[in-house]
Amino acid sequence: MFGFEKVNLTFSINAVWFVIAFLLLAGYTFYIYRYTVPQVRPFTKIALVTLRIFALTAILFFIFEPVLTLTSKTILQPVNLFFIDNSRSIKIDDGTNREVKVKQFTDNMLNSNVQASSGLYIFGNKVETLSGDSIRRINFNEGSTNFSNIIASVKKDERNIASITIVSDGVVTSGAKPVYEAEKLNIPIFTVGLGDTTVKKDIRIRNVLYNEFIYIETPTTILAEISSNGFESKQVITSLFENDVVVEQKNIVLSGEGFQSINFEYKPQKGGEKRMAVTVTTLPEEENTANNKKTFYINVLDNKLKVLLISGAPSNDLSFIRSSLQLNKNISINSITVYGQNKILEGINTNTAIDSADILFLIGFPSKQTPQTLLQKTIDAVNNKDKPFFFLIENSTDYEMLKQFRNSLSFSIQQNAVRNYEVQPNINAGETDNPLLKNNAENSVAAWNSLPPVFQPPHEFKAKPGSSILSDVRINNVPVNKPLILTRRISNSRSISVLAYDIWKWKLQTSSKNLNLFDSFIQNSIQWLNTGNEQKQVRISTYKRLYSLGETVEFTAQVYNETFNPVSDAEVRVTIKGHDRSEILLNPRGSGLYEGSFNSNTPGDYLYEGTAKLNNRNLGSDRGSFNIGAFDVEKIEDRMDYEFLNSLSEISGGKFYFAGQDDDLFFRLKNISEHSSKEKITIKELSLWANEWMMIAAILFFSVEWFIRKRAGML
């Protein structure tokens, strides 16, 4: 009916009552217009009856709330998607004629019986649509190969996708290998492999493991993984470089197993960002020397993190927390301990200690014995200077003094309870993956929930808006809606609060089970509190740090005003300094986003600085760096990754093909298409009673009826 599969009208009240009400109102209308004073023509009488019935029916709609349900069915024709690798690795000359085979495949596909129901794309760093008339855009100039973007584009496609075919060498140089994401698509993926699967004589740096952030003059180990084939017992030199200066060299003998790890000791002498590289010497018979070097970046922090423990009185909790902090050699620990009226145990300058601290631990602080100068200095650091802090309640805590910290605390104290409670953690379901709770237990949450009871003071604590409750409490093993562990992150301030004391018991119980729960919680808290929360009005970055020679460097920027609303009409200029000096203007993309690109055929380190202006007013600036390598990342691996392509096909229900086996592939795709048509059922509900036009119609019918009656002189 009218293109709909099904039309249904329902009422909130039984439809029988609607029919009865309609008949009664219609009968009443006929009755009152049977005789009129004065008498009117039959045509006028019919018009008046019709208008009155329409108006009363509209009112009935408001009472019975009818809903019109329209059901339509659409046949979705199957679509086969083809993705052609457009990266520079297809130009590798390995004797298999990769470029020729890609052209043969596209020609065969366009002339096959699946062409009519297909979509053609090229991919490298991004996915682009291709048509039969634009095959020339397959130029194999993309600087990276990203398979994850294929999966992402398919997820956004609302068509009835019957199959996916990927023509590639399978060497992923950007992003991850999306094997499990492909399985979740529930779409068969067919892969056509390009290149040679033969393992050639080669030495390569497979991977480098390192800490991205380290401290100055703190030794760290950099682990290089080296693989080799065909060079058993050969001697090579592996080297670690910092900004092109040799840090350490090692002579190694290549093993017959083809894999070995090399440890380098690195102790930075100066702070800042360091461009590091691991290299292995090349041998004359190597087929590929582009993979003998791997570049990466390490950030060297100038100073150790300064943590200040401020305690209202000596306590076991203070001792155990200090002990946990001392496990981290990158932390400098200082303390201020109140032990009597206006007395401080340590002979230090408290003002200097608080000003220089990066993180504060407030343990049972403030107490009644706290000196006013120390109290006011701490309040200023927390409330006004947004210094991150860890707060722990103790018996020594003075709640009247604590009220002066209320602007920064993650909780409020509403009323006194009757007595102290013995409480255990009860981790909230939504916080099971919170990094603060991670430890070496097989089940971190279960380890937390099985901790021994600690004491919660006789007060009623309530979480403030904007706070996150990691754990409530259990009293006598019964969950109670009272916070135990909270976090708060507002603007530039961060805090963690533990609303119980004697938490040292957690350390004792877990130590006997070889669990690092207590130590991990303290260390994780340090990391969380130290995470920068700086909000910049202008943020400019490159999509990645390391680029291949000839690869396009892509910039992105975000621009905000003083109230952090996006600015979409600013002028964003980026100055790039390398072998030469260049300047680019980023293009606006709306919502405060800007994009631009830069190309250079000169390898080396590049620095960039960008500035955003609006009406000649400076909104802010940002800077960074990137590196263009002398080696092409697309040429590092010249062997087809058969294992990846085959697993991608198998796990998704497809099949792997070598280039040239097109006939069988197209036959399979044709069969899949013939059995992949789907019906799309669309249901649309129209609430007739809620439509404003229904009210307008009722008023209009009554108005026209009244107008006709007045013109006819009727009573």
Task: Give the tags.
alpha/beta, 15 helices, 10-stranded mixed sheet, 5 domains, 6-stranded mixed sheet, 715 residues, extended, Immunoglobulin-like, Rossmann fold
Explain what you see.
The chain contains 15 helices and 38 strands. By secondary structure, the protein is of the alpha/beta class. It folds into five domains: 6-73 and 686-711, no CATH class; 78-198 and 639-674, 3-Layer(aba) Sandwich (Rossmann fold); 202-301, Immunoglobulins (Immunoglobulin-like, Sandwich), CATH 2.60.40; 305-530, Rossmann fold; 538-633, Immunoglobulin-like. A ten-stranded mixed beta sheet has the order 18-17-16-19-20-27-26-25-22-23, with helices on both faces. A six-stranded mixed beta sheet has the order 5-4-3-6-7-37. Strand 16 (305-311), helix 6 (316-325) and strand 17 form a beta-alpha-beta unit. Helix 1 runs antiparallel to helix 2, helix 5 (179-185) packs parallel to helix 13 and helix 7 (350-356) packs parallel to helix 8.
Task: Outline the fold blueprint.
Elements: E1 6-10, H1 15-32, H2 42-64, E2 67-76, E3 78-85, H3 98-110, E4 118-123, E5 127-130, H4 148-156, E6 160-168, H5 179-185, E7 189-193, E8 202-209, E9 213-215, E10 220-229, E11 235-242, E12 245-253, E13 259-266, E14 272-280, E15 293-301, E16 305-311, H6 316-325, E17 331-340, E18 343-344, H7 350-356, E19 359-363, H8 372-384, E20 389-392, H9 399-402, E21 411-416, E22 421-427, H10 444-449, E23 454-456, E24 459-463, E25 467-475, E26 478-490, E27 493-498, H11 504-511, H12 517-530, E28 538-542, E29 546-547, E30 553-559, E31 571-577, E32 581-585, E33 587-590, E34 593-598, E35 604-614, E36 617-628, H13 642-652, E37 656-658, H14 662-674, E38 678-687, H15 692-711
Parallel strand pairs: 3-4, 3-6, 6-7, 7-37, 9-15, 16-17, 16-19, 19-20, 20-27, 29-36
Antiparallel strand pairs: 1-2, 2-38, 4-5, 8-10, 10-13, 11-12, 11-14, 14-15, 17-18, 21-24, 22-23, 22-25, 25-26, 26-27, 28-30, 30-34, 31-32, 31-35, 33-34, 35-36
